[in-house]
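User: Some background: our group keeps a shared notebook of sequences we're curious about, and every so often someone picks one and asks for a predicted structure to add to the entry. Today it's my turn. The entry only has the sequence so far, pasted here. Could you supply the structure so I can complete it?
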Amino acid sequence: ASLLLVPACFFSDVYMRKAFVLLLRYVRPRAVVNGGDLLDGALFINSDQYARSVARYEHIFGKPLRRAGVRTVVNASGNHDIGFNINVGMQSRAAARWREHFSRQLTVRAVIGGVEWLPGAPKP
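Assistant: Of course. Here's the predicted structure to add to the notebook entry:
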């Protein structure tokens, strides 16, 4: 890994969190829908790396969402989270990790403010 990667990730995280907090203050949403790809390369990292990625997501997005009082957060899985059209065993392991940290459902159908999000997803 490049020596520049560490400061690049650090400052990227600082900027993303700051921008997200400012957006939450300005918009004051009651609900947030994340359309997937919460983690990058989740299929190919070990358990320790995955835990660090989850902690990174939590620091940038999770804590600010709770502090802003957002009660509805919908996290849908993306191809970087659980894969797409890959080895079934690998995808099953990735899906199990995803469920443990983000959501029991891999695809989510939500109606927020009269708007149906991810309408192609199976109905619960």
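Suggested note for the entry: The two ends are 43 Å apart (CA to CA). Residues 5-27 form the longest helix (23 residues).
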